[in-house]
Structure formats: structure tokens, C-alpha cells
Amino acid sequence: GLLKELLKSDHFVSILMNNSKTEEETENPDFLEGKNPLPLVLKKLLLTRDEMLQAASSHCMAAVLIHSTTRYAPAFIHADVPEFLFECLLCKNEILIWSVYCCLLLLTEERLFFSKCHTVYGIESLVRSLQGVLLLNNVELHKQGLLLFTEILKRQPVEIKLFTNRGVCIEAIDVLMETVNCPVLDVVVEAVKAVAAFLRKDHLSSPPVPYEELQKLLETVLKRCADLSPSQSTKRHASHLANRNLGRVPQRQNQFLLNTLESFRNACRLAMEFQGDFMAQVNAFTTPNSETKDTLSNFSEFLLRICDSLCIPMVMSYLERAVSPSVTEVFISTLNILFAVVPSMQNKFSKKLASSSFIRLTLELKARFCSVHSNPVLNHTCSSFLCSLCLNLYSATEKRRTSQEGKFGEREKMSELLQKGLPRLNYTIAESLLLLSETPEPFFLDQSLCSHQHCFILLLYFAYTFGDRFVPDAELFLAVRNFFLSAQDRGDCPPPHILRAALYLLAVCQDKGKVLDMRSLSTIRRILNNLPDLSLVYVHCPLLLKFFLRYPELMGRFGHQVLQLWFSWEDYKQTEAEKVDFGTSNQLNSADPLLPILKSNSSILLILLDLVCSSSVEVAWKVLMTLRTFLERNEDVLVCDLLRSQFLQILQQLLVESSSATLQGD
User: Fold this and answer.
1) Contact (Cβ atoms closer than 8 angstroms) between residue 151 and residue 145
2) Which candidate among 230, 273, 457, 530 keeps its CA 20 to 30 Å from the CA of 447?
């Protein structure tokens, strides 16, 4: 007791620990052991079987270390004191366990504690201690033990493997699962922090990797977090961020959600890192010839499933009540990592995110938290996510175009544009719409305005393609029209992928917008005339077809090409997933979308008849099927007479061509 009181004095501790030694002497373990009698004395007390003396010894160590871990910890570590502290954890004395936890926690601040491998030898004792402590009704002891476990997991050097025994690793997972299910929130918060620190490749890379146990652990953590989230009686849209108040959500629950998301993000990183590890992929040393679910592939698919079913709904529920930059940063970065976790599913996952308003949500987060160079980490995360999402959506929707038109490098150009432009696109949606109408001053060298416009149009294109129409159609129609006019005013011809997006947006908003005036139509026509091939900006969508055939100024110049493309792409056999790529109905693979247009504008029939003569056999057959369906449903005598005379001419022409070909063959 006297020694403990004296150790409260910094001067006394300094004298007792012989702190007047030089730096070279500090690095000499023989000097430390010979000239520092106190660590040796306290070590001898630990070697006794008297728990009271052991507790007193650890109290005295903590009293010394609390003055300066850097100055005094090496002496205790070189004396191998940590080894005996870990052994003391196997007792059931709460006072002794608490004091040892405190002492070891202070020692974790010294790198020598880890480089001497004390944690490697002591981790089993710590895990067994936590198992025993959980049986005790002592919340503070639970928290302190978990805090020590977390610090060891976080600070353990990557090059020194902590879990050399797979059995201890499994026991650690069991302990974490049990603490996560604890009824006391403070204990659960510490447990989830430990889970986040535990999910590191170097902690789990000893084959076979316990994937099934990790799945159970993550599911437990996410379900616990979902259970503790306050329920909302009124559900509002996740992206309406304007009036949310962070203070409504208790700070403890906010921290718990953050730790949960960090755990899940670390698990996703773990899966991605294991993709480059052959031993982790095949999970070697499992039972031969056994059908096991304990594989990286199953674990990765589990991460994607549980993100969709549990993680995303939980965060969206939180966003209805409050928005924290730290929570959203971890959440968005997790989604970005998931794109690479199951590469075969990234397109499907991207489509689901786009259709669930994630483009809008991310734009609003950037506008709210990242303007005026604030929150650079969140800004980078959101920008990187939007870039990956758009490129995945491009790959999903443009697969056929790339193979047919061979537009090498378009994806790379889009990637470069998004990477440069998105970090600076931190405006509200209303501000971004206004930017579409702006024209830079003459000789203005800064291309940021053009970059902002192009990035925003691409984001709108992918959002609208998957049904997230977050701008009123009339406003968007006007803004995109103004974009074409401003591009013409500055003598700029946007690249094909931007023109394609802008034309699509005009087409899908046309019914809610005003009829385009002559100036706008002339501008669009002039820009399209500069293209080497209209297929570069073509989107296989009934609304785009209707847009081109609606205006005589466009139909006269591009009607033949658009209809040719329409029937060419109609021959393409689409999967069910691709049918919904542009938010259209099952009519996409039939003649139905064209029939109402034909009925309202019979002059299109002449173009179709020309296609019968000038197109390939497949396209001509498609056109004839459309005409047959149209005639079956149409009773207009004048139209029938027109078609009858034209068909006779076509037949005569085909007969002449056929006869000529036969004679040449003979």
C-alpha cells in the first residue's frame, strides 16, 4: 500500500526506475533488467499464487506506467512481465482480472510489447479470460476486456501473425458473437469495435479461413444493430436530406451504427483481399472430398445478399431521421468495395442501386456536406462511388454497342471525365440544372463548366434509364434544350456519349416539355450532322424513336437511319434483365411501339417501304411484319391504296434484280 501511494509521485517513479539512463542504455535489455529492480520485484510477486499479491503487483505496474508508457514500459517488457500478466488472466478474481486488463492496456501503447510476441503467446489466455468474464455480472469488466482485445487486434503488426492456432480464432469469434448479443448497449458498442478490428486479413489468413463462422458473426452484428435502431412509424424517401436533424438520433446509437458499418466494410475488404490469395480462395486443408460451404465464393455472395437485405434498409432507415458524414462515408465506401467483391454480380448490383435512387442520394450528400472544400474524404468516397456505378451501368447497357460499333476507348474517356469532374460537382440539383444553360465567356480557358455539364448529364442519363426521375420532366427538358443551345453558341460539339445521354433525356421528357422551336431543332440537327454515324448516339428506346419521328426537321434528315437502327436492334435477342434497361415495357421486342407513330404519321410508311428494298433480309423481314400488323389494324382506304401501289413497284424491282442476278450467275 505504501509503495502504491509513493508511485503516485512522478519524481519518485523516475528515481525508482533509474530514468537518468541514456538512449543507448534504454535499448539494452541487460541494462534494463539489471538497473531496474522494481520490474523484477513486481514480477516475483506475479509468480506467487497469492491473488492479492498479484493484484497489488499489477496495481503498482499500472501506477508506474500511467506516468509515461514510453519511458517505463520497455523495462517491464524486457523483464517478460507481460507473459505472467497474461497467465494471471486465467483466474476468477474480478479485482485481479481488472488490474491486469488495465496494466496490459497501458503496455499496448509500446511497440516493443508486440515485437517481442507477448500478444501471440497471450492471446489464448485473453480469449479464455473473456469467456469466463462473460459469466460474471460485471459490465465494466466486460468493457475493459473488450477494450484490451480491440487494442491488441488493432495494433498487432501485420508481419506478426496473432492467431497461430485456428481453434483460438474460432473461440474468439464465439466470444465476439456472445458479447454482441449482450443486453447492455455499452458492451455491445465495444464488442462491435472489436469485430471491426478482428476482420483483418493477417488475423484470418491461416488456412482454412473460417468463412462460415465469419458469416454468422457478421449476421449477428447487423441484426443486432437493426434491432437496436428505433423504428419509424412514418417512412419517407431516403434522399430527402434537407431538414434532418442529427440530434434526434442518440449519439450512442449513431456510434454503434458507425462501428457496425466499419465492421461490414472490413469484411468486404477482407473478401476482396482474399481474391488474390489462392490458398484463401480454395480454402486449403479442409476435409478432402467434402462438399463445404466454407468458401470465399459463398462468403462473397453472402456479403452481397446481406447488404441488400439488411445493411442498406438499416442505413436508409437511419437516413430518414438523421445524416452523419462519418456514417454515410463508411456506407458509401462499403458499397463501392462491394462492386469488386462479386465481379459477376456487379452489373446487377449497380442496376439495383441506380433504381433505388442512389445517384440522387449521393449527389445530395455531396451538395450538403462537400461544398466549399469541406469533408474531402466523404467527397472522394462519393465521387469514386458514382464513377464506379456509372461505369458499371455503362458496361451493363452498352455491351451490344461496343461489340457492334467498336467504339474503342469510349469507356476510358467517360472514366476520365467522371474522375476529374465528379469531385468538383458539389452543387444542389437545382444549381446543376442552371449550370446546363450557362455558356462560358469567349476565350475562357477553364473547362470546369463543360466538365460539370457533361458529368451531370451522364448522371441524369443513368438515373433516368433506371427509373429514378428526380428532376421534374418539364424542367429537365428545358435545361437539356438549353445545354444544346449553349454548346452551339460556344462552337462545341459534345462527345457521342454525352450527346446520346442528352438526346435520351430530351426524348423521355418530351411529353411533359414544350414543343422544340426551330432554333433548337436546327441546333440539334447541326450537331448530329457532324457525327460520322448516327448509331453512335442511338439508344434503343421507343421514346427516342418517337422523338426523331415527331419533328419533320429531324425525320427528314435522320428518319431513315433511326428506323434502320430500330429494326436492326430489334433483331437483338434481349434477356429479361436487359428489357428493363431503359425503363420500357415488354413491347420493346415487338412492333407495337411503332404502330401508334405510324397511325399518326403515315409518311413514315414510305421510309419503311424503302427499308424493305435497301436493308438486309433480316431487317426487311422485320419491316414487313410491322407493315402487316399495321394493315391488319388499319382501315384507312388512302393508306391501303398508297401501300398497294408501292408494293407493286417493290415487287417489280425485286423481280428485275432477281432476274439480273440469275442471268449473271448463268
Assistant:
1) no
2) 530
